[in-house]
Amino acid sequence: MKKTMIIGATTNKGRYAYLAAEMLNDYNHEIVPVGIKKGEVLGREILDIKQKPIVEGIDTITLYIGPDHQPEWYDYLIGLKPKRIIFNPGTENQEFEKKASEKGIETLQACTLVMLRSNQY
Asked: Please, what's the b/e burial string for 35-56 (b: 16 or more CB within 10 A of its CB; e: otherwise)?
C-alpha cells in the first residue's frame, strides 16, 4: 500500500484532512499526519511540520494547506522525494506543481477521497 503523508493533518473530525486519514486507513494505506496542530489521528501522532520531520519511503503527499501557506515548505516536501503530490481542492498551486514536476515528482490536482472511492489512488 502507499505510505501517505497528510500535510495539514488535524484532530478535527469535520475537516477533509481528517476524513482523508480515515479513508486512507480504511483502504490500508499507512498514514503519516503532519501539521501545526498537536494531537493524534487514528492513533498516530501529528508530526510538527515546523520541525520538518524526515520520513523515509513516502509514496504520496496529500495537501490540505492552502497555497498561501505552502511556499515555506516547498523544499522540505520536495526533499522527502515522494512519487507524487496530490493538490486537493483549494490547494492548487502552479508554482509548487512546477517545482515538484522539475524534480520528477508527479503532481495531480485531484481529491484524495474521490481517488480512493473510484480506485484511482
From this structure: bebeeebeebebbebeeeeeee
- Using pLDDT thresholds of 50, 70 and 90, give the confidence band for residue 110: very high
Instruction: Measure the CA–CA gap between 17 and 11, rounded to whole angstroms.
Output: 9
Number of Cβ atoms within 10 Å of the Cβ of 3: 17
Structural domains of the chain, ranges and CATH numbers in brackets: 4-117 (3.40.50.720)
List the helix and strand counts (H, then E) for the chain. Answer: 4, 8
CA distance 49 to 33: 9
The whole-angstrom separation of Cα 38 and Cα 96 is 26
pTM: 0.97
